[in-house]
Amino acid sequence: MAVPHYLWTFRYLWRKTTMKMKPLMAMALVSCTTAVFAADDRPYFGLQGSYISPDLDRQTDQGLGATLLLGLPAGDYLASELNVFGLKTDRLSSTDSEQLWGAGLDLAVYPFKRSASFSPFLLLGSGMQYDDRASNDGWHGFLNAGGGVLYTVNQRTSLRLDAKRYRVNDNEVAAGNAHLWDTRINAGVQIAFGGDTPPPVIAAPPPPAPPADSDGDGVPDSRDRCPNTPLGSVVDANGCPPPPPPPPAPKDSDQDGVLDPVDACPGTPYGMKVDASGCAIKTAKVVLHDINFEFDSARLTAAAKQSLSKVAEGLRGQPSMELLIEGHTDSVGADAYNLKLSKLRANAARDYLIGEGISPKRLTAEGLGEAKPVASNKTKDGRAENRRVEFSVTKQ
């Protein structure tokens, strides 16, 4: 399969057009040497895909190709660009195709100065192109004008989009028409030669003299309310020693609502109701709804064991206290079965406390079944209230 002309355009073009472009390249070099270079004066090259909308007299369809450009900045507003291109179009009336390749020299003008982000520009130039077609092929000169934009990606790379209108001196295509008008659009990347441009080095101003601090406590004399603080002292923002910390708040170690300094019965078991002196009230029962069991069994859940551990901790703090443990159920199921289940659950709570080191003599377990509800068994919430374990103090 033969390689299309527009893919080997650049090799052929350098051989065909170098001699013809020497005057234009000389003009570019002269213009560059007379300009004052900006901070970023690095030459650059570009690789672009090209689209051509040809003159109707050519009798060809739109085409595609490629463009290589080499640029040399001349200050912040100008750049000279040499571009080499190759394009291919298809004949409308046959399966033949035509190729264009050539080179041009453009002057790029940046009306708003080249910036570090987005830079529009204008293009004005001329050059030569070779029209390779079935008949009347040959070299033709052209003038072009257009514009484009640069979008900076980083210090070396920019995205480039430009469009140009070409006036080609070709009187061999249409009788009586000495010129052809083509439109081209190019898009690609533009990359600067060399490394990144280093940022300008700005000398830092000398630091201001520190304010006077006679006692060396870190607070300037102008706002030091306690001058002559001893060296090494801890001071606040005003240069004064901080006030002494407040005494610690009294604790309530057994969390019975009575502070430790006035608690006559420290270590009250978890959940016990106490009087003003912190001692358990014998006539009051402690109802623990968080002592739950696995469904239809007397096996304690993990949460129930946590609650019973708190009760055991309190009993260890009051070694003379004795408790009655009562198990209750809701009304779901037979009375006899619920009575048996409540006894098993009360004994399970007692056994757990014994396992925590509490003497069996201090614990009595009793199952009452569904005999003493504290809420209606007709609702789900009421039945949950009735499934409970109660603790009563039998001896203080």
Q: What does this protein look like?
A:
The structure is a single chain. The protein is α+β, with helices and mostly antiparallel strands and 396 residues long. The protein folds into 2 domains: 5-192, Porin, CATH 2.40.160; 260-395, OmpA-like domain (60s Ribosomal Protein L30, Chain: A, 2-Layer Sandwich). Helix content is 17%, strand content 33%. It is built from 4 helices and 12 strands; from the N terminus they run H-E-E-E-E-E-E-E-E-E-H-E-H-E-H-E. The chain has helices at residues 9-33, 302-317, 335-355, 380-386; strands spanning 44-53, 63-74, 78-90, 97-109, 118-132, 138-152, 157-169, 179-192, 285-288, 322-328, 363-369, 388-395. It has an 8-stranded antiparallel β-barrel. It has a 4-stranded mixed beta sheet with strand order 9-12-10-11. It is found in: Cell outer membrane. This is OmpA family protein.
Percentage of residues assigned to helices: 10-25%
CATH class of the largest domain: Mainly Beta
Q: pLDDT average, as an integer?
A: 82
| Rg, Cα atoms, Å | 49 Å
Task: Write down the secondary-structure element order.
Answer: HEEEEEEEEEHEHEHE
Relative strand content: 25-35%
Give the CATH topology of the largest domain: Porin
Identify the CATH architecture of the largest domain. Answer: Beta Barrel
